[in-house]
Specification:
11 helices
C-alpha cells in the first residue's frame, strides 16, 4: 500500500463503513452529481458545496464557519499536502492512509501478508493471520482509480494463495480499468498447478504480467534463499505453464551475497531454458524486513559485483532477452549496463545519500531506498561532476 504510515487526525462523521474509502478531488467545478462520491481537498478560501466529505489542510483558523452546513470533514496534518486530484485515501475514526496516488510512478496493492515462502530478504515478512479484508478493500478501491492510470500492481505475501478470489480481483481490474497494465508479484509456485494457470490465462487481459523470482540456477541455492524445499522446481514449472499458455512472465533476481556467486550462470540458465520470458529484472537489495535480521548473510557492496552484473546483462542481451537493472545507484554500475539501467525505486521511498549532493546526474540516477540511507550503503559512491 502507498503511504505506509498511519497519522492520527481529527475527524468528523467518518465512521460509516460504506464511506471509508474516498476519491480526492480539487475540482471546484465538478458536476454536482459527481460531488456526492468525492472528498474535496480544501487548500484555500474556495469551498464549493455538495461534496460528500471535506479534507482540510492547514491553516484551520475559521474554516469550520465557511464549510457547507452539516458537512462532514477531516483536518489533515501538513504532511498530507502532497494529496491531489485522483488520489484515493482510507479514513477511519482516528487515522488516514493513502492507498493510491494519481501522480506516483508506482501504485501497488498489498493483497495479503501470508506467504508459502520465507525468503531471507523478504521486505514484507509473512504473517499467519486471516487478512482477507485486504481483498475486500481492494475491490472497493479499484472503482475509484482514475481510468487513465497507466499501470497498477498487486503484491504480497503471495497473492495467489487466495486462488479464485485473487483471480476475481484481476477480472475486476480488467473490467473497470481496461487500458491499465497490471503487474503481479508472485513466487510462481501456484502456477505449477496447470488448472490454476489455465484459469489465469482465461482472464484474457492484454497487458498482464507476473513477476516471478528465480534466485539461482542451482535448485538448492534457490530453495535456501526462499527457505522452502522444492520451491525451485515448482517455480520453474509455474513459469513454463504460464508461457505455454501465452502469458507474460518477468523473471526477477534480487542480488545479494547468496545469489551473486552464480549470477552469470543464472543468466546462462535463463538464456538456455527460459529464453521465452518477456523480461528479466536484476534488482538491488532493499534494506528492510528480513534483510535487516540477515544482513551479515546478505549484504554485499554493489561496487564489488559490478563486473558480475555487467556479465549477466551481456549474456541476456546477447540472447535478445529484454533486461533491466533496478535499485542501483548509477555510479555503482559499469557504463556497459547502458540502456538496461532503470530509475525504479518508488518515489515515496526514494532518497539520495549526502555524498550525492554535488552529482550532476541525479536526474538520471535511481538513488537509494530510504531504508538504505538509514542502515548503510556503499562507501564507493562517486558523484558525476
Amino acid at each position: 500500500m502507498l503511504g505506509g504510515k498511519l497519522v492520527t487526525v481529527q475527524t468528523e462523521d467518518c465512521t460509516d463503513k460504506t464511506r471509508e474509502l474516498w476519491s480526492v478531488s480539487e475540482n471546484a467545478r465538478l458536476p454536482q452529481v459527481l460531488r456526492t462520491k468525492k472528498a474535496y481537498l480544501v487548500r484555500g478560501k474556495t469551498i464549493p458545496e455538495g461534496f460528500a466529505h471535506y479534507l482540510i489542510l492547514p491553516p484551520y483558523d475559521g474554516i469550520e464557519g465557511r464549510l457547507p452546513v452539516g458537512a462532514a470533514y477531516t483536518f489533515l496534518p501538513d504532511d498530507y499536502r502532497y494529496l491531489g486530484e485522483g488520489d484515493v485515501i482510507r479514513l477511519s475514526k482516528d487515522a488516514i492512509r493513502v492507498l493510491f496516488r494519481a501522480t506516483a510512478n508506482h501504485n501497488s496493492f498489498l493483497v495479503t501478508e501470508q506467504c508459502n515462502n520465507y525468503c531471507l530478504m523478504c521486505s514484507q515478512p509473512p504473517k499467519r493471520h486471516d487478512d482477507r479484508w485486504l481483498v475486500d478493500e481492494i475491490k472497493s478501491l479499484i472503482p475509484l482509480i482514475p481510468r487513465g492510470t497507466s499501470e497498477i500492481g498487486f503484491t504480497g505475501g503471495e497473492p495467489t494463495l487466495f486462488g479464485d478470489e485473487f483471480l476475481a480481483l484481476i477480472r475486476l481490474a480488467k473490467s473497470l480499468l481496461p487500458s491499465t497494465a497490471i503487474h503481479v508479484l508472485s513466487n510462481g509456485r501456484r502456477f505449477a498447478d496447470m488448472e490454476f494457470a489455465e484459469k489465469w490465462a482465461t482472464i484474457g487481459h492484454n497487458d498482464l504480467m507476473v513477476g516471478i523470482p528465480v534466485y539461482s540456477d542451482d535448485p538448492a541455492t534457490h530453495d535456501y534463499v526462499v527457505q522452502t524445499k522444492g520451491a525451485f522446481d515448482e517455480t520453474i514449472l509455474g513459469i513454463l505453464n504460464l508461457k505455454r499458455l501465452g502469458q507474460k512472465v518477468e523473471v526477477r533476481v534480487v542480488i545479494h551475497k547468496q545469489t551473486i556467486g552464480r549470477l552469470p550462470k543464472l543468466a546462462q540458465f535463463i538464456a538456455r531454458n527460459l529464453l521465452f520470458v518477456d523480461h528479466v529484472a536484476l534488482m538491488g537489495l532493499e534494506m528492510t524486513g528480513f534483510t535487516l535480521a540477515n544482513l551479515d548473510e546478505l549484504w554485499i557492496d554493489p561496487a564489488d559485483y559490478r563486473d558480475d552484473l555487467s556479465e549477466a546483462v551481456s549474456i541476456l542481451r546477447d540472447y535478445g532477452i529484454t533486461t533491466s537493472v533496478y535499485n542501483h545507484p548509477l555510479c555503482l554500475v559499469n557504463r556497459d549496463i547502458g540502456d538496461a539501467y532503470r530509475k525504479s525505486i518508488s518515489d515515496w521511498k526514494n532518497e539520495f545519500a549526502p555524498e550525492c549532493g554535488p552529482c550532476q546526474r541525479k536526474a538520471d540516477c535511481g538513488g537509494f531506498f530510504s531504508s538504505g540511507i538509514r542502515y548503510g550503503y556503499s562507501q564507493s559512491l562517486t558523484p558525476f561532476l
